Amino acid sequence: MKYIKFFLVGILFGIVMSKAEIISWYRIYEMFKFQSFHMYGIIGSAVLLGMISMYFFKTKVIKTFEGEDIHVRPKKKGMYRNLLGGILFGLGWALAGACPGPMFVLIGKGVVSILVVIFGATLGAFLYGLSKNKIPH
């Protein structure tokens, strides 16, 4: 029962993603073909919100629910890891037509074919867990 607030926020977030058409395959297709600003505006807003949140985390204005400080690890150096990760993420996003967040919203909307993507994402996470000690980070 103590986690019900997180469950309710997740449901609300799913409704917002659905109403904003973030989960629409067509919107993602438009974005990758540079035909619409819709997704770029949403992603840009998320980046701006993330920057503001990180500022408040670093200045210790925002704390955890228990009142503890949030510790932000220093950024790792190296552009190649970000480029490779971004390319892999973008390719997966383009091939699947969904990024990891909305996958479960699509299940809630009854899109059964997304189960293939969820299976692939779960398998990828499992394989990463097995090999993370053997690959550079």
Keywords:
137 residues, mainly alpha, 6 helices, globular
Anisotropy-based shape: globular
Residue windows where pLDDT falls under 50 for at least 5 positions: none
| Average pLDDT figure | 84
Tell me the strand percentage band.
under 5%
Helix proportion of residues, in percent? 55-70%
Give the SSE string.
HHHHHH
- Structural class estimated from helices and strands: mainly alpha
- C-alpha Rg (nearest Å): 17 Å
Describe the model:
By secondary structure, this protein is mostly helical. 65% of the residues lie in helices and 0% in strands. The protein has helices at residues 4-19, 25-32, 38-58, 80-96, 100-108, 114-131. The mean pLDDT is 84.
Q: What's a quick, concise take on this entry?
A:
This protein is mostly helical.
Topology of helices and strands:
Elements: H1 4-19, H2 25-32, H3 38-58, H4 80-96, H5 100-108, H6 114-131
Helix pairs in contact: 1-5, 5-6
